[in-house]
Protein: Transporter substrate-binding domain-containing protein
Amino acid sequence: MTRQFHVVLWILASLWPGLLLAQELRWGFGPADGMPYAQISDHALLGGFVFRLGERIAKDLSVSVSFIETPNKRIEESLKNGRIHLICNSNPEWMVDASAYHWSPPLFEEEDALLQHRDTPSIQGLADLKGKVLGTSLGFAYSLPLMEAFANRDVERKDVRDLDTRLNLLSHKRLDAIIDMRRSLAYELAARPDAPLVFSPWVVERYRIHCAYGSQLPIAADRLDAALQKLRDSGELDTLLQGEQRRAGLHDR
Structure:
């Protein structure tokens, strides 16, 4: 071997760990996200739609992926400082500085819904919540009318650490209602067939779910956009999501 070839090998060897690291996607997930989106144990993501999607995208783009727990109140800071590269259960309206991020094509639609105790009067709209206590997720923004009702103290917001705790409090009538994504609530109800809980007929808000990419994303944003759109347009995103819902014996609604 020539001396020059040895030099080239040494340079490549010294750069290789950095090249590998640059191709790792640091994928954020929220500790308050329940199934079918996130199956979490001891702060680690073990399954759910977000996990399956991350694994699929990593395979399609030939990169590695690591899943990093990111509380709602730290999502924007984490995207900006590179602690995470993206998070895929989000919407621009939930971000303070939405223009700072690249937003993927919409993945699917969701809605915020209420659960209430079956022995209480039906909550038909915001007026029926006046004077009541609503179980919420810490750091999460809801529809503007509901946020205004919290600010005006027309409705008491009670942040509870996780959905399981909210469900237990509601079952014992220590909350008047709880709010979450409909799929998450439906998943939990299917897993608790004896729970004395029912859906309110009121749909609080409908919205689209996107991925938000930070500026330190290690691959081209348009590559990631194209991979996600291909999965969506082929129906594979719906298949992934429905597969997680079937774990609790229910189908998409």
In short: Helices lie at 3-22, 49-61, 75-81, 144-151, 163-171, 182-191, 221-234, 236-245.
